[in-house]
Amino acid sequence: MTSDTSTAIIDLDIPGATISRHVYGHFAEHLGRCIYDGFWVGPDSDVPNEGGIRRDVVDALRAIRIPNLRWPGGCFADDYHWRDGIGPRDQRARMVNSHWGDVVEDNSFGTHEFMALCELLDAAPYVSGNVGSGSVQEMSEWIEYLTRGDDSPMAALRRANGREEPWRVPFWGIGNEAWGCGGNLRAEQFASLARQYSTYVRAHGDNEVYRIAAGANSDDYSWTETLMRSFDDLSRADATAAPFQALSMHYYTMTGPWSDKGNATQFSRDEWYTALVRAHHMEELLTRHSTVMDRYDPYKKVGLAVDEWGTWWNVEPGTNPGFLYQQNSLRDALVASMHFDTFHRHSDRVVMANIAQTVNVLQAMLLTEPEGGALVLTPTYHVFEMNTGHHDAAALDVHLQGVPTLQVDGRELPLVSASASTKGDSALVSLTNLDAEQGRTVVLDLRGRNVVGRSARVLTAGALEAHNTVGEPQAVAPVVHDGIRQHEAGLEVDLPAHSYVTVSLDLA
Ligand code: AHR
Predict the structure, then answer these.
(1) Active-site residue numbers?
(2) pLDDT per residue over 271-319, tens digit each?
(3) What does pTM read for this prediction?
(4) Quick one: what percent of the chain has pLDDT higher than 90?
(5) CA–CA gap between residue 423 and residue 19 (Å, rounded)
(6) Closest-CA residue to 305 (of 219, 243, 365, 215)
(7) Is 73 in the pocket of ligand 1 (CB under 6 A)?
(8) Closest ligand 1 atom, CA of 29?
(9) How far is the CA of 384 from the centre of ligand 1 (A)?
(10) What is the atom index within ligand 1 of the atom nearest the CA of 74?
């Protein structure tokens, strides 16, 4: 074994917690060109659409089996009043989107349009309710409008607006970033409000609703502690998490301070590693938030939803600074693959994660040319596609040995990230080589079951900053990987420098 070789020991017969498909969730805010020009072009557009929703965007997201979509924000959610977004589109109230570009929002994309989008995507709606500037009554009536079947006042209003049957809304957000744009609240104050608002987000008919209270900013463990303290006793196995069922946590990856977050496609070797070590920080964040939660909730009744994560770079030159439009390179793809490894390892607590954001904003899956132009799949999109085999599979522990580390910004960065899962007679192993220059071989020491078939795919490019454009849409795209061989311990896999590799196994 050379020093360019590491080992990953995997017990294929010891399945762990289920990796919820909802950690592959998405987020679409009324921000820049995410909703308008991203998802929504309007029914009269020349761009192929279904009732105003871009067909190519829907097809691309169905291909990665998008499990849920969070909407309408983000910060926008705490300014949003849902009644402005129902009824005839040309008569809807207008408002100022003060967080994002100070532009006028005409509310042409509202509740019915969002639910139609989720139906086209076959994705579970995750509605983020307004605590910051809304009211308990407003939130209570919104879920009644959406999910009630009889002739209640809100159900009747929905029917008058053209929708007979109630929808199902399985996920509901109680506020967003309540410590910041969602009201600048103190943790104790928000904990009380979260209990109150959650009480009125009722389960109408058979619509079971999972309520997610606005959680911590990155390493604010005391916010998590305060929310956990607000639950009634969870120390018994038969206790129920109520009135809300999960907390969120937000963490963004950038290489500099908020005033200069780094460039999406022009970065130094040092900035490559800075981004990756900051992505690796998610491991510590989840470990420490989980430790706090374990103290109050040993049976893990309360979920943790990382409902905003991803890279946040300086906007592309010449674009509106309030629109958060950024390119997406191979580096973003590896940030994503590392995050998923971390989510898989924490699948006993992490019930959901939502990358920010799906189209044209921050670490997007899809970039569209302005005014309904061409669609580009980003390198991050391909990681989501390569990982669909992990959805609802059982996590497998991966014991890595012989992985070199780098000291970056005072933190230790292992140069290989890995995770694995199994479902029935198959398994999927994810391997990321973070080394900017050196390839590496990983021996997969596969124990407990026989491997009867295998295949591998790789996502990489010649340059670290490689990215996809309309002119070069396949600059970073997965291909079949033939760097995989039989080994006495199992298999041997070559990881090119700066690459993401998935290995699919057939098991007997
Ligand atoms: O995703 C962009 C913004 O980041 C969201 O609106 C907010 O919740 C967070 O600060």
Answers:
(1) 177, 308
(2) 999 999 999 999 999 999 999 999 999 999 999 999 999 999 999 999 9
(3) 0.97
(4) 98
(5) 10
(6) 215
(7) yes
(8) 6
(9) 21
(10) 6
